[in-house]
Design goal:
The complex is a heterodimer.
Chain A (H helix, E strand, L loop, with lengths): L1 H9 L2 H19 L6 H38 L1 H5 L6 H38 L3 H10 L2 E6 L7 H13 L9 H16 L1 E2 L4 E7 L10 E8 L8 E9 L5 E9 L4 E6 L1 H4 L4 E7 L8 E3 L6 E8 H29 L2 H26 L16 H17 L7 H6 L6 H29 L7
Antiparallel strand pairs in A: 1-10, 2-9, 3-8, 4-7, 4-9, 4-10, 5-6, 5-8
Helix pairs in contact in A: 1-5, 2-3, 2-5, 3-5, 3-10, 3-11, 5-10, 5-14, 7-8, 10-11, 10-14, 11-12
Chain B lengths: L13 E13 L5 E14 L3 E5 L6 H8 L7 E6 L7 H5 L1 E4 L11 H11 L4 H14 L15 H13 L5 E5 L7 H16 L3 E6 L2 H7 L2 E6 L2 E7 H5 L14 H15 L12 H15 L21 H4 L21
Parallel strand pairs in B: 3-7, 3-8, 5-6, 6-7
Antiparallel strand pairs in B: 1-2, 1-4, 8-9
Helix pairs in contact in B: 3-4, 4-5
The chains are: A alpha+beta, B alpha/beta.
């Protein structure tokens, strides 16, 4: 471990990484100005500057990992190292620990610098203490998302299907489960839609109740006709419980497709355990609108401070760096440096594409045609779905998440996510890779120009 | 407890046994590329300096790598003190110096030795003690904190030798130990090795420098094309039993003519008459010693080595019984400061 740290320090790799990260943190905010709002500054500093440093460190982690073992073989020092009684596993783990410490140290330094810059820059925008307090409330928090109670549409859909079946309204070629799925979706869309003059109510369970110290945000994104970008008006009534006191009544002017926010003041929300939100589409709109059934209006409630959330995101990033470094080291055990680097970068690409594989694996139809409506998946749909399912099984658990986006959006990163990333990627996956590497190293022979 | 193979060979136990050893390098498709070693059988006893001699590509390095477990034999077996060379327990007893001293260039000699000591799980205090003694022994005290990348090749070889001895090994395997060294350093290394053998360590070395092998080895095996061509003591292999050399002090021409005439008359063959020659190494060492006695020069490289490290100078019998900090078992071989 100490050897890896000394190697990094004396080969000036650590210095190079620090300079690169410092350069990224300095020049990215200069190059990307943002929109001048505090949210814009947060986005530029955290998402782009620290995200850029993370991208650099990811490549460095892979490179460092590939070099750690491969250089031992290329330079021949492995001949001495592996003639000693230290186990292959301990040598591999020692190398990884050294590289992990170096990468984590650079990451922590970068994160600390970004945090300092964020505070300095954002609070310089607000001159008055009240403004600063508002900023703190708006930006320097972490909120968790609460979604409304969702109805299980299976029962309603099956009843409807039986009725349609009796009347022979289902096409002869359509599979029953396919028809059931379509009906469920149609019911969900109907329940999320509002014709002019129509209202919908959603109920939100707030487990421990609201403390009344922080405002609650109600967010929504309406889907409607976007031609002409005509604004729609929506009437919102937010009350406590099913028929309790009204907390807020507001008419909101919104644009379809854009995320809108209603702030429920802290004082009004105190002690509330059940919240009902009623939305009315006034006749003045003269057009129906809907919400995505998978993204009905949601609440964002206070779940902690910015600093704790930021720290959790940095822990996740560090776990990802260790994971990438161990991928590089495992590749370095098997292949020569260029092949190992290529293989590791391929892995990096795959784990970044994992969410896409997950989406594709969940689709029933991979290929669509504008000329015909498919009643059942074809052979090619099934084949590609199988292919994506395999990729999904392999890479989805290892996917590289983007916790910085959550920090920027003030979404709380739950400890379960942190534990998953650290235990699964930083420990379990690394342990498995170390055992594979130890097995490979013990089978490997030390031939130099025989 | 390991089963040590015992053999009556001058009352010495056999510590290394190679039986019908063969190593074939194959390509990706398992086709034979090189037959590096073929049916090699050798036994080496405790306290012996055993030399593997042969031209380049004769299989010396491959044999040594198999001996330290870096290569796996294609067939045949290797036993070191009754164990496989690939077991961790065996590696605790081995010291190995590869053909090229492939040390980490960013470490200093002191750090490198400490690092290799850690791989043997030596306690920190013991490591420090041994590192100091080895640096003294190899004459690297003055440059101990400089990065190895700044060392000359000879100095790197000295560090390589020191790391091979950090664990107080029973068996020391050295691949071309004097390669890249000047004659003075080479002489010093040879003396160290001889001294270690006198203290019960077994030294197995390979070289293509015939004079080196002749100087220090008790027994030699000659390899060519992966096969064993000859094995035996230096005396057995080199002495012409049917010829004698008579050395005389300076004599006048008449006396010499009379002696050669008498030999010719009695034996019927012409005797060879010439002046004896010192070998070049002796001449060089004498020259350097004289220069040192008369001049003082600025010196930035390795200095003259010191005594054999104290922990190495225990005999084999007392190695495990005496406390590590016990006093040195002094004898004439300990002081290697003045080459013979």
């Amino acid at each position: 471990m100490l050897l890896s740290i000394r190697r990094s320090v004396r080969s000036r790799l650590l210095l190079a990484l620090l300079i690169l990260c410092a350069g990224t943190i300095t020049f990215v905010p200069l190059a990307i100005r943002g929109d001048g709002t505090p949210e814009g500054y947060l986005l530029v500093f955290v998402r782009y500057a620290l995200g850029g440093s993370m991208a650099l460190l990811s490549v460095a982690a892979i490179w460092l990992g590939c070099l750690a073992i491969d250089a031992e073989f290329e330079q021949g020092s492995s001949e001495l190292l592996f003639s000693k009684p230290a186990s292959r596993w301990s040598i591999w783990m020692g190398n990884l620990a050294g590289a992990a410490i170096v990468l984590t140290a650079v990451m922590l330094l970068a994160a600390a610098s970004v945090y300092g810059l964020v505070r300095l820059r954002i609070f310089s925008v607000a001159a008055e203490p009240e403004e600063k307090s508002l900023l703190r409330e708006r930006l320097f928090v972490a909120r968790r998302i609460v979604c409304p109670r969702q109805e299980d549409y299976r029962v309603r859909a099956s009843r409807l299907l039986e009725k349609l079946d009796r009347n022979r309204w289902i096409g002869a070629g359509m599979a029953r489960d396919e028809a059931l799925r379509m009906l469920q979706y149609a019911l969900a869309v109907r329940d999320a839609s509002l014709a002019p003059g129509q209202s919908r109510t959603w109920i939100y369970d707030l487990d421990n109740g609201l403390t009344g110290d922080h405002a609650v945000l109600l967010k929504f994104r309406a889907v409607g006709p976007t031609h002409g970008a005509a604004a729609l008006f929506l009437d919102w009534t937010i009350s406590e419980g099913l028929s309790g006191r009204t907390l807020l009544e507001k008419q909101i002017r919104c644009l379809p497709g854009r995320e809108e926010t209603i702030v429920i003041p802290a004082a009004a929300a105190g002690g509330v355990r059940l919240l009902s939100v009623r939305c009315t589409n006034p006749r003045v709109n003269r057009t129906p609108l809907t919400f995505d059934p998978a993204r009905l209006p949601w609440l964002e409630i206070y779940a902690g401070g910015f600093e704790a959330n930021y720290l959790r995101s940095v822990i996740i990033l560090c776990a990802n760096l260790v994971f990438l470094c161990s991928i590089g080291m495992l590749s370095g055990c098997i292949f020569s440096l260029p092949t190992a680097a290529f293989t590791s970068l391929w892995w990096l690409l795959m784990v970044n594409l994992a969410p896409y594989f997950h989406t594709m694996a969940g689709k029933r139809f991979i290929f669509y045609s504008h000329h015909e409506v498919k009643s059942a998946p074809t052979f090619w749909d099934n084949l590609f779905r199988l292919f994506f399912s395999l990729l999904d099984r392999l890479f989805y658990p290892l996917r590289i998440t983007d916790p910085l986006q959550q920090v920027v959006e003030a979404h709380s990163i739950p400890w379960s996510q942190v534990f998953y990333e650290v235990l699964f990627k930083g420990v379990a996956a690394v342990l498995v890779m170390s055992l594979v590497a130890a097995l490979i190293l013990s089978r490997r022979q030390y031939i130099r120009n025989p | 407890m390991h089963a040590v193979q015992q053999r009556e060979n001058g009352n010495r136990e056999t510590v290394v046994v190679l039986r019908d050893l063969t190593k074939i390098y194959r390509d990706f498709w398992r086709r034979t590329r090189i037959r590096a070693v073929q049916h090699l059988s050798i036994e080496v006893s405790r306290g012996e300096v055993f030399g593997l001699l042969g031209p380049n590509g004769s299989g010396k390095t491959t044999t040594l790598k198999m001996l330290v477990g870096l290569l796996h034999p294609t067939s045949g077996s290797i036993s070191i003190l009754g164990r496989s060379p690939r077991s961790a327990a065996t590696r605790h007893l081995l010291g190995y110096l590869p053909e090229e001293s492939l040390l980490y260039p960013f470490l200093s000699a002191r750090e490198a030795l400490d690092f290799y000591g850690q791989l043997f799980d030596l306690p920190a205090a013991e490591r420090r003690r041994r590192v100091d003694q080895l640096l003294e022994m190899t004459g690297l005290v003055h440059v101990a904190d400089r990065p190895i990348g700044q060392y000359s090749r000879g100095m790197v070889r000295r560090v390589g030798l020191a790391q091979a001895l950090i664990n107080d090994p029973d068996i020391i395997v050295l691949d071309e130990p004097t390669a890249g060294m000047d004659p003075l350093a080479s002489r010093q290394v040879k003396d160290i090795l001889r001294s270690l053998a006198d203290h019960g360590r077994t030294v197995i070395l390979s070289s293509h420098l015939l004079a080196d092998v002749e100087d220090i080895c008790d027994r030699i095996a000659v390899l060519y094309n992966g096969r064993l061509r000859a094995v035996g003591t230096v005396e057995e292999l080199l002495v012409h039993e049917d010829r004698f050399i008579v050395s005389l002090p300076a004599a006048d021409t008449d006396l010499l003519r009379m002696i050669t005439g008498e030999i010719r008359r009695r034996m019927g063959s012409e005797p060879e008459v010439s002046h004896p020659r010192r070998n070049l190494e002796d001449f060089f060492l004498e020259l350097i010693r004289t220069a040192k006695d008369t001049e003082t020069a600025d010196f930035s490289g390795a200095s003259e080595p010191g005594l054999v490290a104290e922990y190495l100078s225990h005999g084999e019998e007392d190695k495990h019984t005496l406390p590590r900090a016990s006093s040195r078992q002094g004898n004439g071989n300990d002081n290697i400061a003045d080459p013979p």
